Amino acid sequence: MLHKTYLKTKDCYKVKFTVNKENADKIEILGLNSDWEKPVLMKKKGGAFIAEVSLPKDSRQEFKYRVNGTEWINEPEADAENPNQYGGYNSVLHL
What we know:
Blueprint: E1 2-7, E2 12-20, E3 27-31, E4 40-43, E5 48-56, E6 60-67, E7 71-73, E8 80-83, E9 89-94
């Protein structure tokens, strides 16, 4: 699940990523036009993984989730998908 909030005072978006994935021990977000930096989602009570990331206004962000270091999944609520060089698709956010 995605929740975007525009922060007028900082002229950027705070994006909250929430992923529910059974049997997950670790989930990372890879991409977000940050040289594939890996924000790690924190596991909360109830099993959901959550992270908040500040992203620039008027940007296009491609990303994927990596679960347990091996499984790649997309965000079903992303604004779009874009083909990647590996024959799959990346999730896309338009901010």
